[in-house]
Amino acid sequence: MTDFFKDIPALRYEGADSANDFAFRHYNPDEVVMGKRLEDHLRFAVAYWHSFAWPGTDPFGGQTFDRPWFGDAIDLAKLKADVAFEMFEILNAPYFCFHDADIRPEGADFAENTRNLEIIVDYLGEKMQVSRTKLLWGTANLFSHRRYMAGAATNPDPDVFAFGAATVKTCMDATLKLGGENYVLWGGREGYETLINTDLGREADQMARFLSMVIDYKHKIGFKGAILIEPKPQEPSKHQYDYDVATVYGFLRRYGLENEVKVNIEQGHAILAGHSFEHEIATAASLGIFGSIDMNRNDYQSGWDTDQFPNNVPEVALAYYEILKAGGFTTGGTNFDAKIRRQSIEPADLILAHAGAMDICARGLKAAAAMLEDGTLEAKRRERYAGWDAPAAKAMLTDATLESITERVLSEGINPTPRSGRQEALENLINRFV
């Protein structure tokens, strides 16, 4: 045991009236909602990078966190893992997620990176043997090191492509060894800064080949989890090729990969793309590629990806409404890709941020479940499209032609009168639950 979280108790559910900071007020993992335990609905995961690897930097300032495990040494990486699993126990967290660079020291070359990764994966495996916390997903960091300044899969240098591909192999092996339920690809630098030095067609083909090899290797090693792409429109690249869910789907369809890959959707990235979180989730569900979510929020005044913990129940409820409507998570879950503020320097701040976020998500999911079980919102939606159930309307979507439709409009004297979308009434309906 370390003393990093000294005197911080394990969190328990105490109910909405509890005055205890170190307690859940709304998240009771054993509460049954729509026939399933809350823990099984939400499938919470702690993000290793923001919680244990991020030093508190921002674009204008350096490190503010003083963590005893910071540094490039195996012993420090093991200490980091010790602290991580102590936090998982305090939170009773069912899952965690990591990039390779979060858990291992950076080596001088690929061989040393791989040795370091294998040592720490074995160490994590030992800790998981005596912990209830499992791996939701693993991924490779193909964006932080300077070698990836022009991307990994889309890099103009084939050696960078090769280094990235080899790194992904080691991370997929690690994810399989630790029983991970998904593998994520986030191309933080897969895009461009300027078109004047970029070949869009070539880079798309490279990215598709890279992804195809990942899929092939998944099947070769018998990995049963989902391969997930995480969309993001920009930042750090001026334009990233995985801009949003629809863009990712178009790319997958173009290369015939739409049945092999799903998406991991982040709230902050959805906002940067000009969408709502629920829009991206609903789009993915409608296209059959919904997989998992990164739960966070942006500061709407800042205009960039601030990765804050969620605190808005109505926003969260609408997101979980679309998830529940789509059947809920399968291999995916709710990963807190969120970081405490750089002024929140105490160990307790890490715990309280996660506790509050878990309560917010529980409140949101329960509100979403109540809306679904009530059924009024879906009934109003069906009512709005009820005209399409008529035979003539159905025919327009099957065997009708422009000529036959024109003849019907003339013969029946069709002259439609606009009908209200009743947006405000539906917003009032939603507010009864949230």
Automatic annotation (TrEMBL):
Binding site for Mg(2+) 2: E266, H269, D305, D307
SUPFAM superfamilies in the cross-refs: Xylose isomerase-like
UniProt keyword annotation of Metal-binding present: yes
Positions of Mg(2+) 1 binding: E230, E266, D294, D337
Main EC class the enzyme belongs to: isomerase
Cofactor(s) named in the record: Mg(2+)
EC number assigned by the record: 5.3.1.5
Catalyses which reaction(s): alpha-D-xylose = alpha-D-xylulofuranose
Active site: H99, D102
Cofactor binding remark: Binds 2 magnesium ions per subunit.
PROSITE patterns to which the protein is assigned, alphabetical: XYLOSE_ISOMERASE
HAMAP family: Xylose_isom_A (MF_00455)
Quaternary structure and interacting proteins, as annotated: Homotetramer.
Protein name: Xylose isomerase
Organism of provenance: Halodurantibacterium flavum
